[in-house]
C-alpha cells in the first residue's frame, strides 16, 4: 500500500522517491533487499478514462458500472486546447476502443464533439508566468468588477482563434456595461433634439433580432458576436430614449430582455438589474427570452447601391425583393444615374436585402 505521509518538496520530484519506508523493500522472489520503482505509471493512464469515473464516482468495487456509463456516455462536448489532440485525446480514444472490445462500455468514442479554443497573447507572446506578461484577475476585478473581465474575455475574438489582450478593449467593455446600467436605472432619459427617432416597433423588432442572434451565436460558441449583438441593442435603446421614446411597454420588454440575455455573460449586473426591475427570484433561473419570428421579417430594408464597386446611394425597398425589382429601384436613383453617365450595364451583383452592385461595360 502507498504510505499515508509523504514529503512534498519544491524540487518537483515524486514524493515517493524520498520516502524510505516505501522505496526500501524485499524482493518477493529471492528475499534479498530491493527498491521499489516510484515512476511506473504515466499520468495519461488516469486522464484517459477519468470521464468514465465521473459517471460512477462512489463505486468501491469496480472502476465504474457499465449501466451508468452507458447512460452518460459519450461526452456531449469536449472543450480544450489543441495541444491535447495528439496526447490526451488520442489516448482517450485508445482506451475507449479497448474497453469497447472488452464489452465494458457500449460506445467506442469518448467525445461526441470537440471544440479547441485559441490562446490569449499579450505584447506579442502567449501569456505565461515565465514571460511575465499575464494579467492578474484580482486587479481586473478590483478596478472593473468581475463582469467586465468575463465579458471582455468573451468579446476579445472568435474563441477558436488566438487573440491579443488589449487593455483599452477592457475599458470599452466597462463602458458598455455601465451604459446598460444607466439605461436600466433611468440615468439617460433626457431627449436630444437632433437625435434619430426610433419607433417602439423598431425597438421591439431589434429586441427579437437580438434574441435570435444571441441564441444562435451562443449555441455555436460565437460569444464575441453574441456580445456584439447585445451592444447593438443597447445602442438602439439609448437612441430610443434620446429620440423622445418613453419607458413604455416596448421599452420594458427590451430592458427585461437584455437583462436576461446578459445573465450568462455578466451575472452580477444582470441579477442586480433583475431585482431593480421587479423580477422574482434570480435571473439565472428565468427562462430564456422567447423569439417572435414574425418580427424578424422587416417590411422595408435599406439597400446599398454601388456602381462598379463604389458606393453611390442607399435606397429603401420591400424586404425580400428579387434582383430585377432591386435593380429597377436602384436605377431610379439620381445619384446612380449620374454615376452611370450613360454607360450600359454589363451585369448586376445582388445580395438580397443588403447590396446591389451595378457593373458597367
What would your notes on this structure say?
The chain is α/β, with parallel strands linked by helices and 361 residues long. The chain has three domains: 75 residues, no CATH class; 155 residues, Orthogonal Bundle (Isoleucyl-tRNA Synthetase, Domain 1); 63 residues, Ubiquitin-like (UB roll) (Roll), CATH 3.10.20.590. It is 42% helix and 14% strand. The protein is built from 14 helices and eleven strands. A four-stranded mixed β-sheet has the order 9-8-11-10, with helices on one face. A hairpin with a 2-residue loop joins β5 and β6. α7 crosses α8. It starts with 19 loop residues before the first helix and ends with a strand. The model has no long low-confidence stretch (mean pLDDT 92).
Brief rundown of the structure:
The radius of gyration is 30 Å and the shape is elongated. The protein has helices spanning 20-23, 44-47, 50-54, 66-72, 88-101, 137-143, 146-155, 167-185, 200-219, 223-242, 249-262, 267-276, 323-331, 334-340, and strands at 24-26, 33-35, 78-81, 114-117, 120-122, 125-126, 163-164, 300-307, 310-318, 345-351, 355-360. By secondary structure, it is an alpha/beta fold.
Which structural traits does this protein have?
361 residues; alpha/beta; Ubiquitin-like (UB roll); 4-stranded mixed sheet; 14 helices; 14% strand; elongated
List the helices and strands and how they pair.
Blueprint lengths: L19 H4 E3 L6 E3 L8 H4 L2 H5 L11 H7 L5 E4 L6 H14 L12 E4 L2 E3 L2 E2 L10 H7 L2 H10 L7 E2 L2 H19 L14 H20 L3 H20 L6 H14 L4 H10 L23 E8 L2 E9 L4 H9 L2 H7 L4 E7 L3 E6 L1
Parallel strand pairs: 3-4, 5-7, 8-11
Antiparallel strand pairs: 1-2, 5-6, 8-9, 10-11
Amino acid at each position: 500500500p502507498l504510505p499515508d505521509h509523504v514529503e512534498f518538496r519544491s524540487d518537483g520530484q515524486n514524493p515517493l522517491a524520498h520516502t524510505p519506508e516505501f522505496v526500501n523493500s524485499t524482493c518477493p522472489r529471492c528475499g534479498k533487499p530491493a527498491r521499489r520503482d516510484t515512476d511506473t505509471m504515466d499520468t495519461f493512464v488516469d486522464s484517459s478514462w477519468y470521464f468514465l469515473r465521473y459517471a460512477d464516482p462512489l463505486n468501491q468495487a469496480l472502476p465504474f458500472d457499465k449501466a451508468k456509463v452507458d447512460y452518460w456516455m459519450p461526452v456531449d462536448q469536449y472543450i480544450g486546447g489543441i495541444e491535447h489532440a495528439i496526447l490526451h485525446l488520442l489516448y482517450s480514444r485508445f482506451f475507449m476502443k479497448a474497453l469497447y472490445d472488452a464489452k465494458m462500455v457500449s460506445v467506442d468514442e469518448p467525445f461526441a464533439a470537440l471544440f479547441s479554443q485559441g490562446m490569449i497573447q499579450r505584447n506579442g507572446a502567449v501569456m505565461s508566468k515565465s514571460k511575465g506578461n499575464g494579467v492578474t484577475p484580482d486587479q481586473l476585478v478590483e478596478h472593473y468588477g468581475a463582469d467586465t473581465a468575463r465579458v471582455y474575455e468573451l468579446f476579445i475574438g472568435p474563441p477558436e482563434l488566438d487573440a491579443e489582450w488589449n487593455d483599452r478593449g477592457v475599458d470599452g467593455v466597462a463602458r458598455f456595461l455601465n451604459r446598460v446600467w444607466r439605461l436600466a436605472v433611468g440615468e439617460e432619459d433626457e431627449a436630444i433634439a437632433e437625435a434619430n427617432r426610433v419607433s417602439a416597433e423598431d425597438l421591439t423588432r431589434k429586441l427579437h433580432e437580438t434574441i435570435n442572434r444571441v441564441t444562435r451565436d451562443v449555441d455555436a460558441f460565437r460569444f464575441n458576436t453574441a456580445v456584439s449583438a447585445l451592444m447593438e441593442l443597447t445602442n438602439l435603446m439609448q437612441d430610443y430614449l434620446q429620440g423622445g421614446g418613453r419607458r413604455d411597454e416596448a421599452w420594458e420588454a427590451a430592458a427585461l430582455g437584455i437583462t436576461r440575455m446578459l445573465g450568462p455573460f455578466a451575472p452580477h449586473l444582470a441579477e442586480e438589474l433583475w431585482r431593480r426591475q421587479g423580477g422574482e427570484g434570480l435571473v439565472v433561473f428565468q427562462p430564456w427570452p422567447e423569439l417572435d419570428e414574425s418580427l424578424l421579417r422587416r417590411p422595408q430594408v435599406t439597400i446599398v447601391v454601388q456602381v462598379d464597386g463604389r458606393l453611390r446611394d442607399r435606397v429603401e425597398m420591400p424586404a425580400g425583393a428579387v434582383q430585377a425589382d432591386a435593380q429597377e429601384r436602384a436605377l431610379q436613383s439620381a445619384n446612380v444615374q449620374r454615376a452611370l453617365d450613360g454607360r450600359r450595364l454589363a451585369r448586376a451583383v445582388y445580395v438580397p436585402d443588403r447590396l446591389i452592385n451595378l457593373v458597367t461595360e
